[in-house]
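Task card 7
Instruction: Convert sequence to structure tokens.
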Amino acid sequence: MADDIHDGTLAAQAANFKGYLARRQNRPRGIVRHFLAAYHTPGAHPAQRLGDAVQAAQGYALLGEKAAARRLLTEAAALEDQANRHSPPGTAYWLTPDFQHVNIGLALLALGEYPDAAEHLAAGLASLPSDQQDAEWTREYRDALAEAEDRA
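Output:
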């Protein structure tokens, strides 16, 4: 339907949600496939593309394809200035510069870069509004932070 109304941000977000489900189901190939689809969706906002590249990088790292993961992290970093110049789209309002840290942390954790992963995860979690600090959806990130800290 997003394609029918010519809304690239909404189309990218639909693919992103499929990637999120794949991540929750621990399906790395699905993670890569859906987040790359979102990343390459025409009309996607730079903040979406940044987040999608980082999350696809996590999938590649989980598959042991570290070079592909690092390439996507580099591409994501190149999008930071552009993403930060504009408010995120309404379909992905949470994709603030601070929030991006949690997904960068997941990718770094999958790459085995534990101290950097812990730093990003802690920063992203600390930036959440107080009513979201202990929300159920944050458990994935809090668990990842605990793992990164244990392994650092």
